[in-house]
Amino acid sequence: MTLPPMMRLAALVLVAALSACAARGPVPPTLPATSWADRLAALDQIGDWGLQGRLALKGAGESASGSVAWWQRSDGFDLRLHGAFGRGAMRLTENTAGARLERADEPPIEASSAAILLADALPETPLPLASLRYWVLGRPAPARSMRSSSMPRTAWRCCARTVGKFVTSNTSPCRHGCCRASCRRARARSNCASPSSAGPPGNMPPETRRIWPAPAKINLFLHIVGRRADGYHLLQTVFQFVDLCDELRLRPRDDDQIRLPRPLPGVPPQQDLCVRAAQALRAHTGCRLGVDIELSKRIPMGGGLGGGSSDAATTLLALNRLWQLDLPRDELAAIGLALGADVPVFVGGRAAWAEGVGDRLTPIELDEPWYLIVDPGVAVATAGVFGHPKLTRHTPPITISQFRSGSTGNDCLAVVSALYPQIDAAYRWLARFGQAHLSGTGGCLFVRFDARQAADVAQAQLPAPWRGWVVRGLNHHPLLAD
Fold it and tell me: Dihedrals φ, ψ of 396, to 5°?
């Protein structure tokens, strides 16, 4: 197959910018290192290959970056872009029948060639630009940028996929740490490139047998300081984790199935945040692996403890390891924000001062006392609380030092107590032992203790049918060191 001129040049860009590494398998035709025109001609002889990674483009006054997944086949290609680079999520395909451009929430567009569709889709930063400047975003941390011009051509790797495996066609050693990290990603993504059979891949790491914790959080205070024009409330709060955790077991699959064999009662699998997190991560990266998800719930649902958001975050963190994607935490947090405002704090892994809609996070060091958390058995409808006409919405903003001095509260408490008498009763009972707090919009409440023994004594007096847990405050997520 002969690639169109635009696609041939794009292939050159991706060959140069996206590193890949070797796996054992048949060796494709050698790509000459001396002539890039010859290298492209050699690529024409390889009917099936793929490249994945992050790419940044710069044009006249415009620049953009994002994730790229390119699958070249004998009858055409499949190009997937995600991020500002693709103006969100975009899929471009071309074969003998023509070309097709697909975007979320837009009808597909068809044309005779991909070049026409691509020029319409990215008018400011067409792929590729005649005067293209591009660079590889290296991993692992510390993240750094590296212009391709700083890499000798002998260090570039061009990989082709033959019989379902990536094989190296340029055996020159890679002398750059960033490039080696990208090589590891590309080697891992060779599994994503060629799904073969249902079930777990044979070369998955030992983490497949691991139990992944998803801790609860509490809001040490919650002030509503304003409201945006779009109706979202502006908040100030402090998130701290506690050692009450859901547990996840994740088993990667060679096929593209994302399965939750035992769904939560009343939650359809496609609405489950673990499933949605896995789907979002796969869409973002172009990975073609699947996963079986087993979730053991301990955090009460609808209790203001962030259980669903924590499950989603742990799914992102675990699959980033299991699928060997090596995305930085800030990129995972951006994926998580689309799933829920609390997901980024769990991905970030540190107790945090939060502002905005809860998305502007500043790490904060706190005491790690004991807490008694009480669940009176009421699931609070958050939308009903934030939409209530009597909700306080204009509390003056405070500073971190004012928070530390104790001048805080929860602006949702009055409305929640009026709407849910069981929560009001639990609040009054907890207040016998200290300053009681509502976590988020509830319905769980908590009180602080300096010693576990005192918390245990209070828990022993808990009225039926309420549930209670004695937990320790945590400034660091259990997976922060991963």
Answer: -60, 135
